[in-house]
Amino acid sequence: MVGPVAEELIQPLPIEIVVRTERKQALYAKLRTVSSVAGLLGIWTLLSMVPWSVPIPSPLASFHALLRLDPVMLATDVALSCRRVGLGFLIAAILAVPLGIIAGYSRWIRNIVFPVIEVLRPIPPIAWIPLAILFFPTSESMVVFLTFLGAFFPIVYNTMSGFWSIKPMYIRSGKSLGASEWRLFWHVILPAMLPIVFAGLQIAIGISWLMVVAGEMMAAKGGVGALTWEAYQTGRYPLIFVGMAIIGVLGSLSSLLIKTISRTISRWDVH
Amino acid sequence: MTILSARNVSKVYNPRLEESVLALDRCNLEIDRNQFCVIVGPSGCGKTTLLNIVAGFDSLTGGDILLNGRVLASPGRPTSPGPDRMVVFQHGGLFPWMRALENVCFGPVVRGRMSEAQARAQALDLMSRVGLCGIEDLYPEDMSSGMRRRLEIIRGIIDQPQILLMDEPFRALDAMTKALVQEFLLKIYDEKPHTILFITHDLIEAIFLADRVYVMTSRPGRVKKMMTIPLPRPRTPDLVNEPEFLRLKEELTDSIHEEAQKAFELGEREAAR
């Protein structure tokens, strides 16, 4: 039967039950998250009890080391690293997304650009560090170049494969509906490829963090990478762990930011 | 008056290679204004190829296609897709990133044929007629398969194309949903006839929907037979038990059975190779 159904056939669940079930599920999800982090801290604590030749500071000792840090200095280091990642990543995204799209459209461009990319891409971004140090006048520009480089290739690649993964049916559909080339791009091609582009951005920002830490450890002044390296050089082991933890948190926050933006734009993509 | 005619349409894939395939061999068909025309044939007979040529997704290597008396496509001069020949796709061509109403309004708005408000009003009216109320803001992902099919049909007819091309649109549906969507399609057609080219391999579906049925042979695809379906409209599901319906079905079955057999044997031979 089609059409309105007699109302008594769909009796709504009492609202208390609905709310209770939803709350319970949300609570369980939170519990799982908390216990996973707690488990990590537990393992860390256990490891710190083992008498290694170099003692591992416990989470508590590391936390104390964090509290003893000058908050202004810490904030400056965090801000420096974030800016380096943000700048390099943004430049990479601004250049790589259009390049990936153009390469998707044009075989001509693809033939010119891709051999070069294929040669450069397998070079681990870390291998660029010596060259970058030699060629960039300031350590600041060197580190930004490194974060840019780390982000660039995954974005180009994912943008291209996003373009290729569009089902031909959608493009046919758009053309049948009478969309001009530009509107087809804006309303069909771009939204269809965005989820994969964003997957690339997420990989890319991870590599940008990798590169900022590597660059800062090698040559830069300030930043959480430098903080961690100095802690090592001055023998303040708890601070090494503080540095690592901060890098981890910043990395996952930036990844979360990308994911949130992606979900806001591609609301339809439930995966 | 004839809207669409295919004259000796042939299609050879890879014409210059040794493994060239003759997909369509001098196919002829005619569709009159507001006629519901169905092509049936075994799978692989080239019926989708023929539809794709009309839609502008594929080229032809022989013959020509006329739309409203003008040459639409001929060898070396394929047509491009356009809103005068809307397509309803086999696997569903709704855009997953647009909500129901946006999907339906996209065509007329993007071409500047209707204002946003006009398109919305028209879309809502059409949607209400096929039982699609209250789903305007759903994404296709959140609709049932039957809803998606109905919505895609609405999207196809909202701007009154010259011809609506339907490529086995109900193939993936279960029997119940299929029956339901067929009824909705006929309801729309009865309220306001459109010129429709509909492809299927389901004989009952063909007779139930069509004014005219073309039977196609297996590879190479040829038009083997044309049948007029004189059943009165509006048609209801119980029609399938009427003696006249059964007679037509038998006639159609006979002519297609041979072809299915041939297609099967061809498949066997190819598999054995």
Structural summary, described in words:
The complex is a heterodimer of chains A (271) and B (273). By secondary structure, chain A is mostly helical. Helices cover 79% and strands 0% of the residues of chain A. Chain A contains 10 helices and no strands. With 273 residues, chain B is α/β, with parallel strands linked by helices. Chain B is built from 7 helices and 10 strands. Chain B has a 6-stranded mixed sheet with strand order 6-7-8-3-9-10, with helices on both faces. In chain B, strands 2-1-4-5 form a 4-stranded antiparallel sheet, with helices on one face. In chain B, helix 2 runs parallel beside helix 4 and helix 4 (145-157) packs parallel to helix 5. The longest helix of chain B has 30 residues, at 243-272. Chain B is globular and about 55 Å long.
Structure summarized in a few sentences:
The complex is a heterodimer of chains A (271) and B (273). By secondary structure, chain A is mostly helical.
Break the fold down into its secondary structure elements and pairings.
The complex is a heterodimer of chains A (271) and B (273).
Chain A: H1 15-49, H2 59-68, H3 71-105, H4 107-120, H5 129-135, H6 139-164, H7 168-176, H8 181-218, H9 224-233, H10 237-265
Chain B: E1 2-13, E2 21-32, E3 36-40, H1 47-55, E4 62-67, E5 70-73, E6 85-88, H2 100-110, H3 116-129, H4 145-157, E7 163-167, H5 175-191, E8 196-200, H6 203-209, E9 212-216, E10 223-228, H7 243-272
Radius of gyration from the alpha-carbon trace of chain B, in angstroms: 19 Å
* Helix segment tally of chain A: 10
Text of the CATH class of the largest domain in chain A: Mainly Alpha
Strand tally of chain A, please?
0
Structural class of chain B: alpha/beta
Q: State the major sheet of chain B.
A: 6 strands, mixed
Coarse morphology of chain A: flat
What integer value in Å does the Rg of chain A equal? 25 Å
According to CATH, what is the topology of the largest domain in chain A?
A: MetI-like fold
Order of helices and strands of chain B: EEEHEEEHHHEHEHEEH
* Largest interface between protein chains, with number of residues from each side: A-B, 23 and 27 residues
Helix content of chain B: 25-40%
On the 0 to 100 scale, the average pLDDT of chain B is 90
> How many discrete structural domains of chain A?
2
Poorly predicted runs of chain A: none
Return residue spans of chain B where pLDDT drops below 50 for at least 5 consecutive residues.
none
Give the DSSP E fraction of chain B (strand runs of 2 or more residues).
15-25%
Distance between the termini of chain B: 48 Å
**Biggest sheet of chain A, in brief?**
none
Read across the widest sheet of chain B, the strand sequence of neighbours is: 6-7-8-3-9-10
